[in-house]
TrEMBL record, chain A:
Protein name: tRNA 2-thiouridine synthesizing protein B
Organism, as annotated: Rhodobium gokarnense
TM segment ranges: none
InterPro entries: DsrEFH-like, Sulphur_relay_TusB/DsrH
SUPFAM superfamilies: DsrEFH-like
From TrEMBL, chain B:
Family, similarity comment: Belongs to the DsrF/TusC family.
Pfam families membership: DsrE
Name listed for the protein in its UniProt record: tRNA 2-thiouridine synthesizing protein C
SUPFAM superfamilies: DsrEFH-like (SSF75169)
Domain of life: Bacteria
Origin species: Rhodobium gokarnense
InterPro entries referenced in this protein's UniProt entry, alphabetically: DsrEFH-like, Sulphur_relay_DsrE/F-like, Sulphur_relay_TusC/DsrF
Length: 102, 143
């Protein structure tokens, strides 16, 4: 019964992203959007937290929000799947529930 | 099908309200409580989660006189009357803030299925247990 978790806040400003990663159940996925995408850049202080969960969980980022912040796929920690708005809708439909970490 | 039968067969969904903000600094905690109270009218299976700064919402002895805002903390004690009796509080979030269960309000409810015995609504859970509770819901609403 997997959950799609969405995170829209920077991990450097709020605790939402970090707390989300600590509450993932088996099979859960995380979609990062809006300011949350700044937490996906490699070599940040937060990257280790992402690496710790990326083996067990699918991590997605919303492409338009990466573009808006000048982030390229090469800039990100490994294992991130970039999706567009249609992909966002598909992810919501594929999971049993969506939990938004505000 | 009669009206009664329709009501009897209505699907009950599990709703979890996730509270992660301290009270008074923002409107989130009060808005969450308002929505929870409204939800009580719909006969769903409602649980509340308190984690991160959300645990401050349940701290005993809140006094808001000097900041000119309504102290809404006593309302949590009324939730039992609306059959909202599952208030899950995360142990790690308390620990990180130097709080213990003793710092929280006493919130009781009367268990209809156990001869109206008084029982605590607050249940301290681990972070792992909280993740499992989240995974067990039909709908999660975050504040």
């Amino acid at each position: 019964m997997p959950t799609l978790h969405t995170v829209n806040k920077s991990p450097f400003e709020r605790t939402a992203f970090g707390s989300c990663l600590k509450h993932l159940a088996a099979g859960d996925a995380v979609l990062v959007l809006e300011d949350g995408v700044v937490g996906l850049r490699k070599a940040t202080a937060f990257a280790g937290d992402l690496d710790a969960v990326s083996g067990d969980h699918k991590l997605y980022a919303l492409g338009p929000d990466l573009d808006a912040r000048g982030l390229k796929a090469d800039d990100l920690v490994s294992g991130i799947t970039v999706v567009d708005y249609d992909g966002f809708v598909d992810l919501v439909a594929e999971h049993d529930r969506t939990q938004a970490w505000l | 099908m009669s009206m009664d039968e329709e009501i009897d067969t209505e699907v009950v969904k599990k709703f979890l309200y996730v509270n992660r903000k301290a009270p008074y600094g923002t409107i989130y905690a009060l808005e969450s409580l308002e929505v929870v109270l409204i939800s009580a009218a719909f006969d769903q299976d409602v649980s509340l989660a308190f984690l991160d700064d959300g645990v401050y919402q349940l701290v005993d002895g809140q006094d808001t006189k000097a900041i000119g805002m309504k102290n809404f903390s006593p309302t949590y004690r009324a939730l039992g009357d609306y059959e909202i009796t599952k208030l899950f509080v995360e142990k790690e979030s308390l620990d990180e803030r130097g709080l213990t269960e003793d710092d929280l309000m006493e919130i009781m409810y009367e268990d209809e299925d156990d001869d109206w015995a008084e029982k605590p609504s607050i249940r301290i859970v681990s972070r792992d247990e909280m993740a499992a509770i989240m995974a067990d819901q039909d709908v999660v609403l975050s504040f």
